[in-house]
Amino acid sequence: MQASLFFYNMEDVEPKIRTKVHEKLFDRYKKSNYSSYTYEIKGILTKGEYIKPVRAVLIIKKEHARRIVDLFDTNGIRYRLFEINIPLRDFKKSSFF
């Protein structure tokens, strides 16, 4: 299966922008009313659509690459993008190794 490999660096980005980018990338849970309600907010990448082997590295399905590139470009994040082939079964594992 075609996939995209991202190496990204947020070293020069402000902490509030880093948080905003991570919230847009990945699913997250929010609590309201003093934690009596919990709800999920969907990100660009949901579970099973990406592999994050180490920090600042993402392996994603090719169809999401354009949205990630746009997000990184608008927030001034430096990245390198490589096209790779990876077996589909690796996306279905709970961990990469």
Write a structural description.
It is a single chain. A four-stranded antiparallel beta sheet has the order 4-5-1-6, covered by helices on one side. A two-stranded antiparallel ribbon has the order 2-3. The protein is built from two helices and six strands, in the order βαββββαβ. It starts with a strand and ends in a 12-residue tail after the last strand. It has a single domain (2-92), classed as Alpha-Beta Plaits (2-Layer Sandwich), CATH 3.30.70. The chain has 97 residues and is of the alpha+beta class. The chain has helices spanning 15-25, 65-74, and strands at residues 2-9, 28-32, 37-41, 50-51, 57-61, 78-85. The mean pLDDT is 87.
What are its keywords?
single chain, 97 residues, alpha+beta, Alpha-Beta Plaits, four-stranded antiparallel β-sheet, two-stranded antiparallel ribbon, 2 helices, 6 strands, 22% helix, globular
| Biggest sheet features | 4 strands, antiparallel
What is the name of the CATH class? Alpha Beta
Total DSSP E strands = 6
- The spatial strand order of the largest sheet comes to 4-5-1-6
CATH architecture: 2-Layer Sandwich
Q: Uncertain runs with pLDDT below 50, 5 residues or more?
A: none
Number of domains: 1
Helical element count?
A: 2
